[in-house]
Fold this sequence. Notes:
Elements: E1 9-13, H1 18-29, E2 33-38, H2 41-52, E3 58-62, H3 68-82, E4 87-90, H4 101-129, E5 132-137, H5 150-170, E6 175-182, H6 191-198, H7 201-208, H8 218-229, E7 240-243, H9 247-250
Parallel strand pairs: 1-2, 1-4, 2-3, 4-5, 5-6, 6-7
Helix pairs in contact: 1-2, 1-8, 3-4, 4-5
Amino acid sequence: MTFDFTGKRAIVCGGSRGIGRSIAHGLAAAGAAVSICARTQASLDATAAELAAHGNKVHAAPCDLADGAQINAYIAAAAAALGGIDILINNASGFGMADDVAGWTAGFNVDMMAIVHATHAAQPFLEASGNAAVVSVSSISAYRASTRSAPYAAIKAAVCSYTASQAAMLAAKGIRVNAVAPGSIEFPGGSWESRKNEGSPVYAKVKSQIPFDRLGTPEEVADVVLFLASPAARWVHGQTIVVDGGQLLFS
C-alpha cells in the first residue's frame, strides 16, 4: 500500500531515531510537511537533513518531552512553521524500567503525560484541520505482566486506555485517535542492537519467541502508523493495533 499525504502537516514527537525517525521519513516521502522534536540536537539535526531530501517542508526543534511547558512551546512553533497540524504522532518514551520512583517518574512524565500535553496543545489545530489523526505508540508490554519493566508495562497499558478515551472525547471534533503496540524492534543504536552485540541471553530468548525468527524493524511499525494516519483508516477509531510479528503469541 502506498500513501499520499500531500498537503498534510504532521508532527512526530520523538522523531529523531528509531520508530519515530521511520515514521517521519514515511510521512515526508508521502508528501507531508513534517516537524520533529527530540532532546538530542545531533540526532535531531541529522534526521532533519535526511527528511529535507524528500523535498517537503521540514521543521525540527529540541524539546524535553518530560516538560509540559516545552511541549506547549514546541507544538505552537511547529504549527506556525507548518501552517497548521493535521497529524500528531506521539512516539517518545522515557523507558522507565526499574520499579522505583525514578522508573515510574520517567514513564509517567514522558510515555503518558507527553501524550496529554501534546494532544491538548495540538487540539485547536487538529480541530481546524477538519480531517485530523492522532496516533500514539504503546507496546505489547501493555498486555502482560512484567518483572523486568513493571513501570514501562503499566504506563503503556495506560496509553492504550487513554487512546480509547481520547477517541471517545475527540470524535465529535473530527479527530481520529488510534495507537500501535510494537513488539521488540531492532535498529542501529537501539537497546536491542546493544543486547545482540553483547551476546545477551535476553536477546536470544526474545528472538526465539518470534515465529519469524527475527526482531521487527522500525519501518514495519511506521507502515502501520501511516495507515492509521491515512484516509485508508478513516473508519478505524479508538484502536490499538499490535505490530509484533506474532511475538505475543509465544511469549
